[in-house]
Input
Amino acid sequence: MLPKIKYVRAYTAKGGGADYHDQGAGHWIDDHIATPMSRYPEYRQSRQSFGINVLGTLVVELEAEDGTIGFAVTTGGEPACYIVEKHLSRFLIGRSPAEYEKIWDQMYFSSQYYGRKGLVVNAISGVDLAIWDLLGKLRGEPVYHMLGGAVRDELQFYATGARPDVAKELGFIGGKLPLHHGPAEGLEGLQKNIEQLADMRAKCGDDFWLMLDCWMSLDLDYATRLAHRAWNECGLKWIEEALSPDDYWGYAALKQNAPRGLLVTTGEHEATRWGFRMLMDMDCCDIIQPDVGWCGGVTELIKIANYADSRGVMMVPHGSSVYSYHFVITRHNSPFAEFLMMHPGPTEVVPMFAPQLLGEPVPVNGRIRASELDKPGFGVELNRDIPLHRPYPNEGH
Ligand SMILES: C[C@H](O)[C@H](O)CC(=O)C(=O)O
Ligand SMILES: [Mg+2]
Output
């Protein structure tokens, strides 16, 4: 019998890490990136100006009766701490981490009346990842072993950041650029978007994948025009998250309208098996991109991935560092993974969730070997030198 969970603790942390938009001035990730808020000129230059980094990181720590600690990080900050400590902890204390299915079900359905997506599911995801970490640490097994084992020897990565040309030199298989100008900047903005992409195509050569991340900023008409020009003039591989995550009808139309061969991708702000079922049943995209720290955790991602597999849909999770790596290595329908370049330039490979995780593997020549994941749980430790704040201790302490 495994030791039971004795303590549940939820902390917040600031300064990068799982809340990867919380970076210092001059970072590429906050440099005039198109967003749904770009229609307001005062919020166009910086995403931090409208509060993209307002939540911070949520750290969930579960301590078992024998003192073993499992933990996970995701976004959600102080409000997510409240949900974990004051609501979800009741489903954890005194329970075995091997009961992850029932625990997930209880967390989700007890919070459904105020949850279902967004912050609450981030909090549930953080708890679920901490459970899997604890389970792996108690069993002395990496999470990917518990998920069925590796289906290939290494992970291959594309890089997200403003410098696909540097990503190519660093050995990545492709580069995903942020889109800089949204519909409010008119035809001039559209032209600038195409010129930036064309410039990158010239720098990277013809056979390197180039993708555009539109971070929910476009409307269907703009997205269709952009897709055609970017495909015809620059050989774009995929157009990502062009529309609001709620606009399933728009995504279905975009997939119909897009040039044959260009992939439509979305899902990083979608959650649960029901949200992804909607995307797939409505034929909204070619690749789904759940974030394991936001979609419901590993327990839910198994269901999402199996449904995608049964429909022949590719699943390439969004960011999420080790939480994604341990999953992707086990799936045939996840042939490659994303690496978010968190160097400000970004001209170097640095750990995605630095400084919060210790022992986080990074791609070398665009790859991580499966054997690098061979440590119990998710194979990382919490960096306790960073300031951690615990705002709402539960009664069990
Ligand atoms: C670069 C994008 O705007 C965003 O910050 C990250 C993202 O959507 C992705 O990695 O995908
Ligand atoms: Mg994205």
